[in-house]
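Team,

Forwarding the record for the chain on the shared tracking sheet. I've put the sequence and predicted structure together so nobody has to dig through attachments.
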Amino acid sequence: MLEALLQPSAIAVIGASRTPGKVGHEIVANLIASKFAGAIIPVNPSAQEVLDLKCYPDLAAYGKHIDLGIIAVPTALVRDSAEACMNAGAKALVVITAGFKEVGEEGLKLEKELAKRCSSRDVHLLGPNCLGLINTHHKMNASFAKQMPLPGGISVISQSGALCTAILDWAAQRHLGLAKLISMGNKADLSETDFLTAFSKDDDTSVIVGYLESVDSGIDFIKAAENAATRKPVVIFKAGVTQAGVKAASSHTGSLAGADTAYGAAFKRSGIIRAATFEALFDYATAFAMQPLPKGDRVAIITNAGGPGIMAADAVEQMGMQVTSLAGGTATALRKKLPAAASVSNPIDVLGDADPERYVMAVNAAQSDDSVDAIIVILTPQAMTKPAETARAIAASSEGNKPILACFMGGADVMPGRQELVAHSLPDYTSPERAVAALKSMCDYVAWLNRPPRIVTRFPVNRHRVKRIIRRHLRSNHLQVGEAQAKSILRAYNFNVPPGTEAASSQEAQDIAEKIGYPVAMKIMSPDIVHKSDMGGVRLNLGSPSEVRDAYDLMMMRIRERAPEARLEGVYVEKMCGRGREVILGMTRDPQFGPMLMFGLGGIFVEVMKDVTFHIAPITADEARQMLERTKSYSLLKGVRGEVSVDIDAIADSLQRISQLVTDFPEIVEMDINPFIVGRAGAESVAADARITLKQM
């Protein structure tokens, strides 16, 4: 799909310059220095030659076919330059020039016109406002970056040209090879989705690494990322995480969901390994590029110092992996070969005077132990330590079937060892925590690869009833669905809802209460009041006719005082629910990624601790249970300190029903079931309150 961009035979540089330091000069120089095997065509009407290459006044004077045009001219000349390239047969353009949408409305207009013109000619556009691209396996540095990386298996996509140069510098320092590097710039045409798709099929790429600030099409991104992640690891650093995604959210779910929450849920769904920092991006990429994937999360730690070994063990457990118990035979073999003072449990302490041979004994023992899935090797500089020799010995003993991550702690003394580790493709980290975090990213990726097939359950429901309710509300432009109608929608999707009816007078409220049986709850009905309890619009455990009448009159009086402009439609009287654990189920529709389901325990767990999880709909039964398990308060659902566990299957089932509802009806943009009261296994769970917000389609 992108051959003309990634593997061109003839490249024209529009705006080539004879002046070192000018962008057009550096691009031509980089193409020559990278030993690009195809034709390099400098274009500049003011030059006869550039860097000993014949320079043409225009492409018409060149008169031959080109595959790729690289444009580095002033903004006003970009459109005509693009036309000239396309007329010369170019099927891909790289526009280095800035001054487009990043400068305002006029620039945005120019960018849209350029993209539209390229699209009409079936030409791919990279940029504008970008650094260019590099393909090491094609010997092509079509950028104005300083360095040409070594060939390797990591391919990089970035919205920031400056971050591209930082990645190149980092790769050079670590002697780490790259396959391709793409600076996407303004993404007028080609975006992260296109490159995820291309790199997923690229034999030269073993790991995809990205820096993203935004995603152009959330649904397409998830599909492309999930397809890519099934073939190779995808590691992304997402910047811009503090901007709220829903500024005017009316529900608990909406107020808890921001832009970063949506990206986190999308990454989780699609198998992307998310790096929380730029440093972690490199850490994870190095591990994936240099080492095999672990078969499990059982870790052996080898160290020449007790403290760092403990640090690593703490990090392993804190990150949800296992400091494995070594097999009896392993401990026996180590005991025969190591000094008496050495520890042959896990961590394996080979002592401060350990020579390379002692490390090799421990590494070989761990590699032979079936209870070990991964190995972390720690070295601290003692007087007797030989970092370089130890690094070479560890690398030579690696059998390549279990990942080995090294942590040579210190500065100048261990630097020779760290250089040897890099030279022998062993990832090296400056602290045990960083090494463990990189290993955790590998384990998470393996768990995602081994996930059950995604089978989304479709429940038998009454869609026609829901369609009628939603259509009626949208026709009258009532976008807040009242509790009575919201619960009617839930009944249509087979939620258990307490019996209840609307009342327009105190006497009618009393009649309803006597019909359904005491005690009852009473809630105000108004399209203008979203948070009823905040306005005094909720009364619970009303146990007699007089209590119901008094509650009605008092509620109406107080609401009129506190919200005089609110339209009052009466009250909703319903049977009080039985006791149980209160949880919140919800959904908010992200503009990029669509419906995001939310789960959390009620009360302070949501209000104060924000202990909630999100997942992109539609979800499977396994994903619904994972939403519960990822909360810090999950142990309360399972039962602690003598408390009985609740019906976890009922919660998971209800999340799947919400998933189906909001997938069936894109008009629903927010909803809460709060509280959803769940009892012990086998008891009936109840949707005690519900709120739904619609939008015109």
